[in-house]
């Protein structure tokens, strides 16, 4: 009997508790056989949607990976400090293999492999029956499947380091596989993207690529660059040949010459240069994020910034539920407490220039309560202003915990800043400035941007500017952890953040000129607060109220919310040794002993 390959049958993940018999059962009912599916555009397109459906499962991207990967960093942290709590431990580099949030039989690791298995089936079917050499539409679907598989593998490596490599549909001989050196996966997904890019149209060129929930060429080119930067950068790695042996590992570069910067950077830059001009920075940073919350970020094309979003349906995804400005039973959240789980570190607001339009969009120091007006949240707790219930289309928001927000995976600003970083690394700052300039100009104005960028005349100065610019541009988008890892800056930057927060608490160092007060007023839109932090001897602006309870200088008591243990609690373990999540016990047990933890993590006996 022919094996049925409709996406509805590609549900099995390699490491869940599903039985081998179920995984390999080919007798499930279907109206079509393999050849019929993968020689027909509409049917094959349905299998593509089967890949992305795996993102939406309860404990996949929707409820476990996206809400928990990416903090704590020097710019973003979890807003609750509670050592020993499963959620707090994930954020603070203390996640253990029995973690209460992630040690699940249907957790993100297994469900991401569900997406990979579905992609493998689609890719195999299209290569066999899709006539992709002569049919551009079918070739597009092949490119889409290859890109989605590459994205999932990249996310697996970001979270777990070395993972099993599966690039063919599961069969009886391959159902249980050990972890593989991530370099093998990096090389395969980079090669896959090389192929996919040749098949994919630019944003807006076709009906499918006019939507940000479908794959386009510029996103694939950007993903190639993003993966190339990670593959050629620093990371915690077991010694060569010791993956899956319990090796403690060390932070180092890959020893594979095919993944060296001088090999990957030139190719990545070619792709990025091709992408330049095929999408655009939207002119109004605040409006861009308003549109994102309003679900008006689904159009792709030369005039738009968003390149790809996680394609959650209207009743799926817990993005604003997790990351929006805290709404403690307010009118905007229909009386239900939502948002505020994570936010910028308290010092982040002060890193922006006073005229940087990104500051007040990104860093918010007020919350919504049951009253009609927002109130100051206190210097120790900030929220991501890029995500707001009050900006959502229907008011009040009456949906459930799944708000349907489609998180941005990549936007055009990242294309420009990756191009700037790589150009500077290869050729110095002279030609790299053209890519940094428009990002800076949107934020600070053209004259200020030109003066700033033109002053970056050494490779080192330009690189340091990129490190800063990526923090300012992408705070709250959870790219920072990967950036710090590949730059070998993770622990150093976290330690800098600790010292910086101690200075803010004590009104010392860079914050010695602050009075410790906050002044505020309701903004004209009546949907936000405007606030200032007065300086010693400075003018007090008119029209603002003083918050008598708001001071930045605290004693070292737990009630202050900004005490020493809380600040140092940005990490519990050395992040250079615990930058990855462990493989969780449930997965290890169901791998029949094939998968084992490395680094400092235990394996079940």
Structure description:
- With 605 residues, the protein is mainly alpha-helical.
- The protein contains 21 helices and 15 strands.
- The chain has helices at residues 20-24, 34-38, 41-53, 61-68, 86-91, 108-129, 136-160, 182-199, 217-231, 261-275, 285-293, 319-323, 358-362, 412-427, 429-444, 446-454, 459-474, 480-486, 490-506, 564-568, 585-590, and strands at 76-78, 235-237, 250-252, 306-309, 327-328, 337-338, 342-344, 363-364, 366-368, 374-376, 383-384, 408-411, 519-522, 529-532, 545-546.
- The longest helix has 25 residues, at 136-160.
- It is globular.
Rg calc: 24 Å
Total number of β-strand segments?
A: 15
Overall mean pLDDT: 92
The strand line-up of the biggest sheet is 14-13-15
- The helix content is 40-55%
How many distinct helices?
21
* N-to-C CA distance: 41 Å
Structural class: mainly alpha
**What fraction of residues sit in β-strands?**
5-15%
Overall, the morphology is: globular
Given as residue ranges, the uncertain stretches (5+ residues, pLDDT < 50) are 1-31
Biggest sheet overview:
3 strands, antiparallel
What is the fold's blueprint, element by element?
Elements: H1 20-24, H2 34-38, H3 41-53, H4 61-68, E1 76-78, H5 86-91, H6 108-129, H7 136-160, H8 182-199, H9 217-231, E2 235-237, E3 250-252, H10 261-275, H11 285-293, E4 306-309, H12 319-323, E5 327-328, E6 337-338, E7 342-344, H13 358-362, E8 363-364, E9 366-368, E10 374-376, E11 383-384, E12 408-411, H14 412-427, H15 429-444, H16 446-454, H17 459-474, H18 480-486, H19 490-506, E13 519-522, E14 529-532, E15 545-546, H20 564-568, H21 585-590
Antiparallel strand pairs: 1-7, 2-3, 4-12, 5-6, 8-11, 9-10, 13-14, 13-15
């Amino acid at each position: 009997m022919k094996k049925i390959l409709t996406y509805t049958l590609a549900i099995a993940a390699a490491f869940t508790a599903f039985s081998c018999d179920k995984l390999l059962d080919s007798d499930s009912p279907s109206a079509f056989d393999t050849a019929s599916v993968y020689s027909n555009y509409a049917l094959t397109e349905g299998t593509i949607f089967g890949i992305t459906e795996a993102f939406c499962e309860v404990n996949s991207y929707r409820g476990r990976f996206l809400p928990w990967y990416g903090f704590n960093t020097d710019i973003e942290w979890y807003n609750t400090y509670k050592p020993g709590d499963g959620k707090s431990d994930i954020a603070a580099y203390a996640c253990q293999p029995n973690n209460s949030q992630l040690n699940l039989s249907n957790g993100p690791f297994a469900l991401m492999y569900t997406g990979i298995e579905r992609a493998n089936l689609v890719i195999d079917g299209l290569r066999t029956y899709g006539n992709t050499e002569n049919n551009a539409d079918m070739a597009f679907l092949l490119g889409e499947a290859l890109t989605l598989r590459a994205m999932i593998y990249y996310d697996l490596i970001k979270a777990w380091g070395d993972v099993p490599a599966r690039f063919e549909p599961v069969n009886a001989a391959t159902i249980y596989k050990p972890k593989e050196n991530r370099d093998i996966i990096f090389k395969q997904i980079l090669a896959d993207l090389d192929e996919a890019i040749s098949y994919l149209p630019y944003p807006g060129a076709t009906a499918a690529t006019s939507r940000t929930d479908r794959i386009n060429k510029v996103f694939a080119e950007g993903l190639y660059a993003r993966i190339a930067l990670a593959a050629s950068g620093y990371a915690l790695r077991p010694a060569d040949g010791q993956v899956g042996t319990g090796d403690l590992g060390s932070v180092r570069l890959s020893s594979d010459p095919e993944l060296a910067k001088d090999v990957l950077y030139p190719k990545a830059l070619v792709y990025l240069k091709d992408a330049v001009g095929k999408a655009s920075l939207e002119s109004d940073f605040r409006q861009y994020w308003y549109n994102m919350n309003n679900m008006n970020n689904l159009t792709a094309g030369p005039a738009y910034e968003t390149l790809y979003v996680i394609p959650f349906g209207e009743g799926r995804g817990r993005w604003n539920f997790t990351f929006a400005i805290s709404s403690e039973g307010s009118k905007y959240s229909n009386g239900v407490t939502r948002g505020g789980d994570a936010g910028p570190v308290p010092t982040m607001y002060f890193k922006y220039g006073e005229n940087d339009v990104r500051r007040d969009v990104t860093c918010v120091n007020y919350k919504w309560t049951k009253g009609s007006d927002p109130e100051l949240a206190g210097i120790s707790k900030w929220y991501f202003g890029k995500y707001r219930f009050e900006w959502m289309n229907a008011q009040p928001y009456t949906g459930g915990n799944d708000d349907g927000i489609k998180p941005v995976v990549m936007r055009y600003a990242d294309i420009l800043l990756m191009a700037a970083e790589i150009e500077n690394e290869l050729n110095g700052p002279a030609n790299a400035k053209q890519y940094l300039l428009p990002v800076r100009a949107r934020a600070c104005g053209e004259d200020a941007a030109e003066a700033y960028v033109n002053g970056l005349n050494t490779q080192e100065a330009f690189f340091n500017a990129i490190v800063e610019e990526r923090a300012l541009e992408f705070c709250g988008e959870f790219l920072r952890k990967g950036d710090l890892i590949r730059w070998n800056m993770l622990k150093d930057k976290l330690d800098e953040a600790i010292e910086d927060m101690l200075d803010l608490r004590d009104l010392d160092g860079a914050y010695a000129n602050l009075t410790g007060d906050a002044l505020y007023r309701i903004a004209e839109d009546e949907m936000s607060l405007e606030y200032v932090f007065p300086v010693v001897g400075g003018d007090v602006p008119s029209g603002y109220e003083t918050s008598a309870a708001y001071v930045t200088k605290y004693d070292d008591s737990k009630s202050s919310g900004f005490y020493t243990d809380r600040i140092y609690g940005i990490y519990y373990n050395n992040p250079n040794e615990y930058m990855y999540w462990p493989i969780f016990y449930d997965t290890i047990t169901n791998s029949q002993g094939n998968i084992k933890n490395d680094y400092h993590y235990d394996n079940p006996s």
